[in-house]
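Table 4 source record.
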Amino acid sequence: MSLKTLNAQDATDLDKDLMSVGAFSLDQLMELAGLSVSQVVYKVHPPEKGKRVLVAVGPGNNGGDGLVAARHLWHYGYEPTIYYPKQPKNELYQRLSEQLKNLGVPFTDDFEETLKNTDHVVDAIFGFSFSGEVREPFAAVITALENTRVPVTAVDAPSSWSIQDGPPKFGPGAKFNPECLISLTAPKPLVSHFTGRHFVGGRFLPPSVAQKYNLDIPEYKGVDQIVELPAGQNAKV
């Protein structure tokens, strides 16, 4: 199975279409994305392999997906911890954070120390819209992810990677290639540089929107919100 990739502009336009002609709200899309992320974690790292999951959360929509995933993981029986150093005042993100606090999910200010006692990491820092230089505190976090032996699942893009060109040539993220990646809605061109297990989560895409962007809808099984792409099969640019 080989799926067409979606560049940054098309990904942005597609999200707008989903919230206009598709009639989805941002909350709904974030909930569906986070649910997909949580299913990937459950598949690649079931609770019996270790329940402690550290979720690194960025300030944008990618981070919101991570917060939703953490809530689902708690209900699956995991013990998530949230690293969320740049918390926006946006009401949606505040509600997502409050939902986790109501479950007793801890928030940490010390990523590297928490990483020492973690079984799996969710990288939900930067997504497809990232560009430019990685600044602190995230530069140190991405460097820690490069060097850790703890398995990492990246949400839509390994943080610091260019959506088009993959990992940076130097600096934080240059050697970062996580164990797992979930592409939301459709793969992005950066997947040609990715060597781990690759999943797609987008079981909500209306056929009319898929056709507009010439996207292939993979065959989802049963109630799964995700599908794994076979190893060695690159997405189509």
